[in-house]
Every structure is written in C-alpha cells, then in structure tokens.
Design goal:
The protein has 253 residues and is an alpha/beta fold. It has helices at residues 34-44, 59-62, 65-70, 82-85, 141-147, 161-166, 172-179, 187-199, 217-230, and strands spanning 4-9, 16-20, 25-28, 51-53, 74-78, 93-96, 100-102, 105-111, 119-125, 128-133, 152-156, 204-208, 238-241, 251-252. Strands 6-5-4-3-2-1-14 form a seven-stranded mixed beta sheet. A seven-stranded mixed beta sheet has the order 7-8-9-10-11-12-13. Strand 8 and strand 9 form a beta hairpin. The mean pLDDT is 97.
C-alpha cells in the first residue's frame, strides 16, 4: 500500500477528504468541524494531519479552514485562489503554481469548471496515484484522460436531473446554475466518466459530493453501474459512494 483515500464527509453540507501514504497524511478541504475531522483522523491512525489542500472557497469546502489554521494547520492552494483566501485565513499558507511535495506525497492541482476558481487534485507516492475531482460542470476529455492513470478516483456525482427538475424548493436560476457548464456533474455525466476511467484500468472509483436535495446514493450508484454494463465493463472497477454524514471505507492502492 502506497496511498490511502477516505471520505470523511462529502456532500452539499460539507466536504473533507483524507489522503495518506505510509509516512504522510493530507486533507482536501475542511468544510466540516475540526472535532469531527479529529475523530475521523484518530480512527484512521492519522491524528497528526495538519496539511490542507483547498479546492475552492465555497463554504462547504472552506468553512472551518480559518479555525484549523488558528490551531496550527497549514493551508495549500493554487495562487489563482489568492483573492478568495486573502483576509479570510490567517496562519501558515502556501500559494503554489506547480507541483508540491509534502513528505513522500507529490500533489498536482488542475483547474476544473465551476462558478468560482476551483481545482481538482492528483496525489502520487511510490508509483501509486489517487485523484479527487468534484465541483465541476463539465469534464473535458483532456482532464479525463489525464486522470485515467489513477489507481483510485473520487469523482463528483452531484444530482439526478429528474429530481432537480422536480424540486419545487429550488428556483429556476439555481437549477440552471447547478446543471450548467460551471455547476456540477449529473449522475449521467459522472457515469460516462466512470465508464471511461474503468475502461482505462482505474480499479477504485468513489462517487462524491452528492446533493442532499437532488440525489440519492442509490441513484448515483445505479447510474454508474448502468454505464459500466452499457459498455461491457461490469465488474471491472469497484464503485462506492461517499455520503455526507459517515466516513467512507478506506481505499488502499
């Protein structure tokens, strides 16, 4: 085992993903309370984790970052996010434009299509690679190709189109934002990505950032497994679902 990935929380109310190697532990985002994260890290045997990589500054990813930094956490983010972070998080910060090395993990950020500057991440250690990519309205073929050599991928499967259309609590402008090219990936769009990744040899795929209002784990999983069956790929990859209120299983690669 060179890398582990576990969703501590994934969804519309808060996100935090753990990535660790034999010697190094990192977090992607901190949108849930430090107390909850500390409990999860203790369960993972990674209680000393202090490095946080930020995808973007929406509150469900950024909310508890300032508090964590006051307690000694270090925040890492692409310099394009500077204006969103400046003045909101005081403490140890690293703005980068290329790859970053933390311990024995190399971290590579890549931009994704969202309504604020936003990044996905790939993590490398001892020949293993895991990728976290959420909060994107479209998945360019170039990005999909670039992450297709991952051993494990956490990919967004945010909403079911029928559920979104039928949600009378959401105004039309919000529905358009979610479904737009700078919003989120639908189950169907994510499922096509899942099939492509599986066809390229990705063995572990976790569906994440599910909408609490416009999706269910069963709907996301059914779409992904349906796409694998459609392309004669059933059983070629392990598909799991990350949820809001529970830790996921730990994937080791």
């Amino acid at each position: 085992m060179a890398l582990r990935i576990c969703s501590i929380a994934s969804g519309s109310k808060g996100n935090c993903i753990f990535v660790g190697s034999n010697r190094t532990s990192l977090l992607v985002d901190l949108g849930v309370s430090p107390r909850r994260v500390s409990s999860a890290l203790a369960a993972l045997g990674a209680a000393d984790t202090r490095d946080i990589f930020l995808t973007h500054t929406h509150s469900d990813h950024f909310r508890y970052v300032p508090e964590a930094m006051k307690r000694g956490a270090a925040l890492h983010y692409n310099r394009i996010l500077h204006s969103g972070v400046a003045g909101r998080a005081e403490g140890e910060r690293e703005e980068f434009s290329g790859d970053v090395c933390i311990g024995d993990i190399t971290v590579s950020a890549f931009p994704v299509s969202h309504d604020v500057p936003c990044f996905g991440y790939s993590f490398y250690s001892e020949g293993s690679k895991v990728t976290v990519v959420t909060d994107l309205g479209i998945m360019p073929k170039s990005t999909l190709e670039a992450i297709s050599d991952s051993d494990a991928v956490l990919i967004e499967s945010n909403y079911d189109p029928d559920m979104l259309r039928a949600n009378y609590c959401y105004p039309e402008y919000l529905k358009a934002r979610i479904a737009g090219c700078r919003g989120h990936l639908s189950n169907q769009a994510s499922a096509e990505c899942v099939a492509y990744l599986a066809s390229r040899g990705v063995k572990h795929i976790m569906l994440g950032h599910l909408s609490e209002q416009n999706n269910t784990p069963d709907a996301a999983l059914t779409a992904a497994c349906g796409a694998l069956k459609k392309y004669n790929l059933a059983g070629s990859a392990e598909i799991t679902v990350a949820v809001q209120n529970e830790m996921s299983e730990v994937i080791e690669v």
